[in-house]
Design brief:
This protein is mainly α and about 140 residues long. The protein has seven helices and two strands. It folds into two domains: about 70 residues, Multidrug-efflux Transporter Regulator, Chain: A, Domain 2 (Orthogonal Bundle), CATH 1.10.1660; about 50 residues, no CATH class.
Length: about 140
């Protein structure tokens, strides 16, 4: 099947298929009569796997590692569990950082609500942002 057909069946964009092919995650052959890339059923299976792994939260680097296990006729499931267990604390940390950022945004908006909007003077873009000071690093920890 061609790039567009593969993309449609796997519910991704044709550009995603091309990118994964350039990255070595997918393998295509060339149709000698027209030069188009041709993909087999294995590419569809692999592309669906990649899409699901991305949805779970795996990076392309991690997916490449997982697929290397499979290419060596080994089951990558143990490594998949291990990688996912490492991602949980990372994700918890990202959530905590986002929560701190949200509080900072809310506090900033609240402080801005008490300030009048400035008239453009040709020297500043937006006084609210230019006069904003970052929260102390201690407040974020």
């Amino acid at each position: 099947m061609r790039t567009s057909e593969l993309a449609q069946q796997a519910q991704v964009s044709p550009e995603t298929v091309r990118y994964y092919t350039r990255s070595g995650l997918l393998v295509a052959s060339r149709n000698t009569s027209n030069g188009y890339r041709e993909y087999g059923y294995q590419a569809l299976t692999r592309l669906r796997f990649i899409r699901k792994a991305r949805q779970i939260g795996f990076s392309l680097k991690e997916i490449t590692e997982i697929l290397e296990y499979e290419n060596q006729a080994n089951s990558p499931c143990y490594r998949v569990k291990e990688l996912l267990s490492l991602k949980i604390p990372e994700t918890q940390q990202q959530i905590a950082e986002l929560q701190r950022h949200l509080v900072s945004m809310q506090n900033t908006l609240q402080s801005w609500s008490n300030q009048a909007e400035s008239t453009p003077d040709g020297h500043s873009i937006c006084r609210l942002i230019e006069q904003w000071s970052e929260p102390d690093a201690q407040e974020e920890d």
